[in-house]
Amino acid sequence: MVILIFLNQFIDRVTFFENLEKEMFLPLIFYRLCYPSAMRYARMWYVGNIVRKFFDVDISSQRISEFLEEIGDESIQREFFKEYIREITPSEGVDVSTLKATVEELKKYGVSRILCHP
Q1: pLDDT reading at 43 higher than 90
Q2: CA separation for the pair 77, 116 (Å, rounded)
């Protein structure tokens, strides 16, 4: 639920979403979370779901394809993850207290040798 609240606030705040159809974004996210299947079934899900009462959009295969092409731009993805990481990372830093234990476990199984030496 936190990610959906973040996404909604993020979409409203950032400028690179200005030319995108924002109303299409959240229904497709809800679809993927509730019914993780091919996008071609999204319209059928949408018609029979309460989501259609909150988002009045054309969720046809053609519109989904056009929307995915729009948001597939690399600059949008980079900006999204930069903002998302900033949002989820605590201001005081990242807790690495378990990192040593993880590295020790990897060493025990010889994985560090595989990962560090191609």
Answers
A1: yes
A2: 28
